[in-house]
Amino acid sequence: MLIYDDIYSWEGWGGRLKLGSGQCRLRIFDLDKDGGRRIAHLKPIIVVVSDIPREPSWTPNQMSVKSCASHIATKVVREFGIDPERMVWVEYYEAPSKDENLRYPGSDRFDEAVFVWREEGALQGGWKPLSPALTDLVRKLLADAADPTEREA
Q: Residue 48 and which of 33, 34, 59, 85 are 20 to 30 A apart at CA?
């Protein structure tokens, strides 16, 4: 079940200069709140973060999701009361539109960010491709979230 879907803003660490601050698309799904299903999940919280398009494409003091992953994860976990040991953090990079005349067109990419959690927050442990089964699940969750009639059915 989708529990949050909006543009998420985070404050950086640069004081007045707002270094490290930015915005991203944040979607939080709780698989344990999926109506009627009685499947236990070891990690029922799936957090999907995406960079948002900016005009111009590079904006001063606007950080990418990848460059601030541990900072954003720490803030999201605290703000939403999420147990980080029961969460999968997914960075979603949407494929460029077919209208963009790119030399090397790509496809959607899903990366799992792996964190080491300490009392003070997340430390970046690295990234790995999302498993095929989890990729399929995330694609379905995103598709269902994009089509509100699916949720009402």
A: 59
d(CA 51, CA 54): 9
Angstrom CA distances, 106 to 30, 50, 56, stand at 29, 16, 22
The torsion of the CA quartet 113, 117, 123, 128, rounded to 10 degrees, works out to -20
| Residue type at 15 in one-letter notation | G
Q: Count Cα atoms within 13 angstroms, Cβ side, for 34.
A: 17
